[in-house]
Amino acid sequence: VFTGRDLAADGLGAIPPAVSFPGRGGKPMVAAAMPALAVDRVRYVGEPVAIVVAETVAQARDAAEAVVAALAERPAASDVERAMAPGAHAIWPEAPGNVALDWTDGDAAAVEAAFARAAHVERVRLYDTRLAPSALEPRAAIARWDAAAERYTLIASTQGVAVVRRLLAEGVFKVPPQKIRVLTHDVGGGFGMKVQAYPEYAALLYAARRLGRPVRWCATRVESFLADTHGRDGVLEGELALDAQGKILALRVRTLVGIGAYVSTFAAIFATANTKNCLSSVYAIPAIQTDVKMVFTNAAPLGPYRGAGRPEAIYLVERLIDTAARAMAIDRVELRRRNLIPPAAMPYRASTGQVYDSGDFETVMDKAAALGDWRGFPARRAASERAGRLRGIGLGCFLEVAGGILDETVDLRFEEDGTVALRTGAQALGQGHLSTFPPVVAQRLGVDVRAVRLIEGDSDEVPAGTPSVASRSMMMAGSAAVLACDAAIEKGRRLAAHLFEAAPFDVRFESGRFHVAGTERAIGIVDLARRARALTGLPADLAGGLDSTAKFVSPQMSFPNGCHVAEVEIDPATGAVRVVGYVAVDDVGRVMHTSIVEGQIHGGVAQGLGQVLGEQVVYGEGGQLLTASFMDYMLPRADDMPPMTIGHHTAPCTTNPLGVKGAGESGVAGSLPSAVNAVLDALASRGVTQLDLPMTPARVWMALRAAAAAGA
Q: What's the CATH class of domain 407-553?
């Protein structure tokens, strides 16, 4: 049995966030790092306090029952409002008011002036429920220690080996990164949750070194609910200023984000910049100001969860527009149309500072409305009313930022066996990398796709890179692969010219072969690479074969966008909400693989609808997790999902060689606002104009009862 004091006595540190920056007035963020095992204080239910190692799982569980943790109970503040209430106990003494970061962005003076001249101001306050990512495969790991090499090996289900290795090496073990090898094989889902270097990984590696034996561990589902990073969790307040014609003048946003007891790997990014960067969305909003407080709570740390700050922004903006349309008696589609950025304005600099390179937002919205038969909705509503049901329709326009950290490196190697290997720090966890990356290389080099091998998930093999987050893998690693292929082709052209005693400009590359124009002299790129390894006496610029390492640096983010339409039917007797129709039209740039893109949209829609229909992590007043199993946490099932119609509109991205924009998170960004708008459209006829998430049968039923009583 090892405890946090054992680890501290051996000099182990804590796991720091990967990103930290100052807030308002230059005040530094309280970057509370996660200990591998708690020392002296436990800040949330589920925090690891000891590791018990035994020959079998049964023995370990029995031994764990004998471990006694003597803890003095403290008051719990498991949500942001309790944590910020006067007199709330300090989760971290160095964070007064439990605020980890107070951050602001935007032109406050311009926003204030716009509100002063506005004909109408719309306000909403929304709760963004805390969610459990609930990957199909729970976290699991195997730790080994090589005493001869003084080197650790961690085999774990991660979203990228490089960041896990770096944080463990620098923060915990204080060794060079090369002293830790991280391996990731097949991953059964992550949704952002598996990007974290978790305390359990550090404890396992420590135990393996102390015992001199491999140590393995797999989380139970209850442990996953308790200790995995959660998603979302916040209070969103927005004010929208409009003129008398419905043109948006300014947007003011205040958010409180409950980040849990520690600052996770990328919490500072998704809680601040990701939300801010999406606030203008597809609309011409002249002035935007946003204020964010990251608040410590007695809850599991908040991590990136599919969308990671983007759906929060879109949800707020789309609710503001819908409520403004109702208040100003302007059609919902028409109000959006009046404020959409036209394609002729591209490239368009949003007031958030982002430069949109491409997009045709009005066409996308019109396609979605047509596919969803928006005009035919009144007849469907009437039919539902005759059957005693309420029917509503809603749409959500969105634009999100994709790319995250804007550089990525890949290695391209021509192997002895005639295959071409692409090594990348990106990590597949269900996105279909094997179906997308090899075709990019095969098409660029003109080789058989079966001859291309993709190598991921080994920190000894792959270049240091960014995890698979932010819908970035194809945009960044795919673009780097293009550059690596082009570098190999260009060097091959010069090498072929040298071998054929021809001028480089006379050598053409077509269908995987170099040939000298006007002659029959030719050689395939794989054969040339094989010959290059054996050649000696080559000029320095031609030596070393055709292998290449390429780094793609994007000048900016990309901007996937779309419009989703949801249609719901509600049984007023029970409050049950059923999503009866769903349309998604997305512009993800160039579509590399239709089935994979549509699968990503389907999955994102399911997760967005899950948040609307019932998903919610709930802590009790004492800090106990009340939703620690699927008995209590509502995960959407297949029969909760509607039939989906997926449409595409392609406006290629102009800032990367593939023209892609990213597709991993669009489904969530569109489904959350469109479904909420649909539910509230259905309830409006009964006097219900606002309802907090999740819109469970009980909550809908009580809202209908309250509205009926108020109108009686």
A: alpha beta
The first and second tokens of residue 328, run together, are 């100003």
Average pLDDT rounded to a whole number, residues 648-676: 97
Q: Please answer whether residues 633 and 625 qualify as being in contact, where contact means their C-beta atoms are separated by less than 8 angstroms.
A: no
Beta strand 561-571 with 390-399 is antiparallel
Pick the closest to residue 269 from 287, 298, 251, 294 (CA basis).
294
Question: Using omega within 30 degrees of 0 as the cis cutoff, is the peptide bond preceding 22 cis?
Answer: no
Count how many residues are written for the chain. 712
Round to whole Å and give the CA distance between 145 and 412. Answer: 31
Domain boundaries, the chain: 2-85+134-227, 358-402+558-712, 407-553
**pLDDT at position 712 over 80:** no
- 3-class SS of residue 622: coil
Pick the CATH number of 2-85+134-227 from 3.40.50.720, 3.30.365.10, 1.10.630.10, 1.10.10.10: 3.30.365.10
**Which two three-digit tokens encode residue 665?**
């998170």
CB-count exposure of residue 618 (10 Å: 0-12, 13-18, 19+): middle
CA atoms of 612 and 504, how far apart (whole Å): 61
Closest CA to 342 of 358, 354, 360: 360
**2-85+134-227 and 358-402+558-712 have identical folds:** yes
Scanning the structure block, which residue is given the tokens 């909003």? 285
Is the backbone peptide bond immediately before 35 cis, with ω within 30 degrees of 0? no
What single letter denotes the amino acid at residue 213?
R
**Pseudo-torsion of CA 302, 303, 309, 310, nearest 10°?**
-140
Triad 406, 411, 415: Cα angle to 5°: 165
Residue type, 655: T
Give domain 358-402+558-712's CATH number out of 3.40.50.300, 3.30.200.20, 1.10.10.60, 3.30.365.10.
3.30.365.10
Q: Provide the greatest CA pair distance for the chain.
A: 95
| Amino acid 59: pLDDT | 97
Taking only the tens place, the pLDDT of each residue in 147-189 is 999 999 999 999 999 999 999 999 999 999 999 999 999 999 9
Four-point Cα dihedral 97, 304, 614, 256, nearest 10:
20
The strand pairing partners of 255, in sequence order, are: 236, 292
Strands (E), 222-278: 231-242, 248-260
- Quote the tokens at residue 371: 């596919």
pTM of this prediction? 0.96
DSSP 455-497: E-SBTTTSPP---S-TT-IIIIIIHHHHHHHHHHHHHHHHHHH
Q: Which of 417-431, 514-528, 534-548 has the lowest mean pLDDT?
A: 534-548
pLDDT (0 to 100) of residue 125: 98
Rounded mean pLDDT of 397-408? 95
Which residue, 598, 566, 595, is CA-closest to 583?
566
Pairing of strands 14-15, 34-35: antiparallel
Give the C-alpha separation, 430 to 541, whole Å. Answer: 40
Which residues, in sequence order, are bridge partners of residue 458? 183
Round to whole Å and give the CA distance between 21 and 371: 44
Q: Could you give the dihedral angle defined by the CA atoms of residues 492, 496, 498 and 504, in that order, rounded to the nearest 10 degrees? A: -80
Query: If you average pLDDT over every residue of the chain, what do you get?
Result: 97
- Nearest of 302, 279, 293, 290 to residue 233 by alpha carbon: 302
Q: How far apart are CA 466 and CA 477, in angstroms?
A: 9
Write out the two tokens for 645: 């119609």
Q: What percent of the chain has pLDDT over 90?
A: 97
Element (H, E) at 658: none
End-to-end CA distance of the chain: 65
530, 447 in Cβ contact below 8 A?
A: no
Please report, as a single letter, which amino acid is at residue 696: T
Alpha carbons 580 and 642: distance in angstroms, whole number:
5
Summarize pLDDT for 472-493 with one digit per residue, the tens: 999 999 999 999 999 999 999 9
